[in-house]
Amino acid sequence: MSEHSDEGRPDTLRAPRIVWELGLRLLLLTDTHIGAAQTLPRHAAESDVDLHVDREPRTGVPRLRATTLAGLLRHELTERTGGTGPARALLGAAAPTADSGPGPGASALDIDDARAELPDGAGVTVRTGTRVDPASGAVRPGRTWQWEVLPAGTVFTVPLRLHVPGPEAEADLLGLLLLAAAGFDGTGPGRHVGGRTGRGYGRTRAARWSARRHDLTGERGWFAYHARTWEERWADVAGSLVSPAAPVFPATPAFPGSSASPAAPGPPGSSASPAAPGSPEAAGACRDAWGPGERHAETPGVPGNAGAGADLAEVLARCLDSVGLAPVAARAGAVAAGYPDRRHRAELRLRLAVAERPGPPDAGATDSDGTGLRPGLLMIGDVPADARLGEVDRAHRHRPAPADPGASHASGASHAPHAPHAPHASRASGASGAPGDGTEADPVPVLGDTALFALVKRIGGRLVRDAAEHLGGDPARWRAWNAYWWGSDAEDGASGGAEPPPSSGGPRPQPSRIRLRAVPTVIGGAPLTTTRLTVDALFGDAVDGRLYTNDLHCGGTADVVLDVRDPDDAVRGMLALLVRELATVPFDTLGSGGGSGNGRLTATRALLTTVPGDGAPEHTVDVLAAVRAPDTEDGRTARRWLAALRARLGPDRPGRPEPARHTHSTASEEEPHR
Q: Within 13 Å of residue 193, how many CA atoms lie on the same side as its CB?
């Protein structure tokens, strides 16, 4: 056997026969912090910022590393399929695992680093973080830091290449790619990038996909793929994501292997006629009509070039159909559908009104649109806009809000009276997309990210603590249970929140298993400017020079989604108590000015949906209806959850059986309940 022959080699070591060139415009739906590998980038000057975003050392442009994106795809594929075998087939493995086969494997998918394209009028912002004492709720002295944040609406153009060893493996690899990319469809929990994802940071969506197929078994196909520089390949990927409203026509094709550079766009008839679909030339792979370096973005008549679209499956099917390989697309779809979603999860979908009830809620009353409530004021502090810097001291936070297809069903029902703001004012600067490509973003008021997560975490912890004290349970037990679901850091663990590992002398931080899906935007309401002054406590007079002005937000509603990983009945019971608190008389407030009556939130809708992850249908309970009508089916289900919570938090009694746990609980889930 020749040293250049593939005979006898595993698929992962064979030279590819087919190469797919893919392009992805990944849109940030919420702010994010993608950390740098070092404290201070080499290009940056000394500053007070503690945590910088990752940037290219040469240009200083924020970037998304290929390793980060590969990790997101691997996690999505592993969670959906319930094993590491499919992830190894698509993304390789450094070492063998129990279900992935022997030996290491090379990745079939290559990914390049992606540069950030910031939205118009926005830049990398610097925020101040604080460490809050979980017991008192006050900021710990000296525990502050500054960190850089990429704004929502930022777009990453990601080039990808899928290497297929032969036609027999093409459908399988494309099917696995469809499964891995499903985390970027903008629905469900999705994939979050960067840090503080439990607070809703880093939610992403694939705004556009592009695809081009190369068959390397022929001379033309080989030169069409290889006879280009990396700069030309990256330019081709960016050009392939151009909006259909602005097509790019190719120049006259150069001879394969020549160094012809891209020419100016010409008329549609200036290119060579494409091969007929199904012909050997067409099946040879999207390569006959184009020379090296030529743009091929929006040319639906060219075999093997699918143009761009928001749905990857549709783009791949269009590309394969153009070369007479439609059955491959059908088989790829069957491969993706053959893996049931193994993620066991729950999602609590709330509609919160910036308002409070004038009286106790009526049994059976419905106020999902917030009618009958007294509008309140909200202040999530931020720097005023440039036009108001000289007039206002503080303003309510506004953030770019790109169109999110998952937001329309986040509440589980139509939200027509309060439709989301239609983005129109701006779009990502420097991007090749045109209006309508899904990357436009307008600044809108938000309900908060860290503040909102801290609010629900504080309410949930207080409810669990009160229930455990009433039942006479062990304080260490409820603290460990609360830290398991809401997360804890090392400092919280030092006070009994987390159990230290046996191999270390200190406490162990734990991630939160309850996560805020995205930073919710406030729909409706109106801005309100207030002027406040400081009054002398002794004489009752205004203090000179102590006058300040705030831009607040009055009224409105927001849809909030909390995702729960591997839930059981006990945590569902805690969420039911959380809904009851928000729907009746909430004691805790959001944002600043709580002592003056600001930040009152009232739940007007609450649906808890459980996805079993074993193929069984999902189950939804109207928690708010269960609170108001305990004798209904939803009410009986909620009482069963509360019984499980009491059994979990109460004292151990001899002869009492252990509370039933969900069949999907893992060994790691059982540990904090011992």
A: 32
611 touches 344 (CB < 8 A) = yes
End-to-end, the C-alpha distance of the chain in Å comes to: 59
Contact 572, 641 (CB under 8 A): yes
Q: Which residues are 514's β-sheet partners? A: 564
In this predicted model, what pLDDT tens digit does every residue of 256-289 receive, in sequence order? Answer: 333 333 333 333 333 333 334 334 344 344 433 3
Enumerate the β-bridge partners of residue 53.
35
For residue 476 the two structure tokens come to 């260490």
Task: Report the greatest alpha carbon distance in the chain.
Answer: 99
pLDDT at 582 over 80: yes
Q: Count CB neighbours of 472 within 10 A.
A: 9
Length of the chain: 674
CA 602 to chain centre: 26
Q: How far apart are CA 63 and CA 70, in angstroms?
A: 14
Three-state DSSP at 537 gives coil
β partners of residue 393: none
Sign of CA dihedral 495, 498, 502, 504: negative
Res. 348: pLDDT tops 90: yes
pLDDT given at position 218: 83
In terms of DSSP bridges, do strands 355-356 and 602-611 run parallel, antiparallel, or are they unpaired? Answer: unpaired
Q: Is 196's pLDDT higher than 70? A: yes
Q: What is the 3-state secondary structure (H, E, C) of 26-52?
A: EEECCCECCECCCCCCCCCCCCCCCEC
Strands 394-396 and 542-554: parallel
What pTM, to 2 d.p., does this model score?
0.78
